[in-house]
């Protein structure tokens, strides 16, 4: 075993760069020398073969082999044998439904929380690492049996967090208003709005904001707060009633 190790990235591609280009150094230092092969979960996109090719190319360029879970005849066994797991972005509802359909929720939880293998998520893969997918930006194009996700951390994340554009004439709700509506419901956990280019590194009971952009933290009943890269978010990992903070 070992403590949980998570790298939760807001987005796979940053404007002006290639797939995972903006976080490739973070990936290398996160996976380190011990991991030789990564198990990739492409369930968030319809074209799983194409997605696996893109991911394999990237990880091989960083020195890691990559196996895609959709090519395995036994996905549960693939998780049990994995050295590290990477769940990519796409549609969060499609992804979570496939995790349930393939009986992978408890298996991944066990590997990450009990066995201590590294877990990396990007976008939808970051969403499913949290308590629930209630704060995803995606359309519910399929119907998972539950909105409860892997629960590797005791809060929610909103990837691709967007600040309101003061010049915009768009009259729909801002991201901040949508998260506030979520927090109008009782007993809702904190939501970390990760801007594109940001990521959260979790090592045991320590959580640190990394990347090139900041994050916005929403606590129920409180004003949102702004945070720069390097912020220590370890207090979010305390699984008590954070509403009292």
From TrEMBL:
GO molecular function list: dipeptidase activity; serine-type peptidase activity
Top EC class of this enzyme: hydrolase
Superkingdom per UniProt: Eukaryota
Gene Ontology BP, a term: proteolysis
Purpose: Hydrolyzes dipeptides containing N-terminal aspartate residues.
Family statement drawn from the similarity comment of this UniProt entry: Belongs to the peptidase S51 family.
The protein's name in its UniProt record: dipeptidase E
């Amino acid at each position: 075993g070992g403590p949980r190790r998570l790298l939760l990235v807001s987005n796979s591609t940053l404007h002006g760069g290639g797939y995972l280009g903006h976080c490739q150094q973070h990936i290398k230092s996160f996976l380190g020398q011990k991991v030789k092969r990564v198990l990739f979960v492409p369930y968030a996109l319809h074209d799983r073969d194409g997605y696996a090719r893109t991911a394999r190319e990237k990880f091989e360029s960083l020195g890691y082999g990559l196996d895609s879970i959709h090519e395995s005849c036994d996905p549960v066994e693939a998780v049990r044998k994995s050295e590290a797991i990477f769940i990519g972005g796409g549609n969060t509802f499609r992804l979570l439904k496939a995790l349930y359909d393939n009986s992978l929720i408890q298996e991944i939880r066990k590997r990450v929380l009990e066995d201590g293998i590294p877990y990396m998520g990007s976008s939808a893969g970051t969403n499913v690492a949290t308590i629930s997918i209630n704060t995803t930006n995606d359309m519910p194009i399929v119907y998972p049996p539950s909105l409860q996700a892997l629960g590797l951390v005791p809060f929610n994340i909103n990837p691709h967090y967007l600040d309101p554009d003061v010049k915009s004439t768009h009259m729909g709700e801002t991201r901040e208003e949508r998260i506030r509506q979520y927090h109008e419901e009782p007993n809702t956990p904190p939501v970390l709005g990760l801007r594109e280019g940001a990521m959260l590194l979790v090592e045991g009971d320590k959580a640190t904001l990394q990347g090139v952009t900041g994050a916005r933290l929403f606590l129920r009943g409180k004003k949102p707060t702004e945070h720069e890269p390097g912020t220590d978010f370890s207090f979010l990992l305390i699984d008590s009633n954070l509403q009292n903070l």
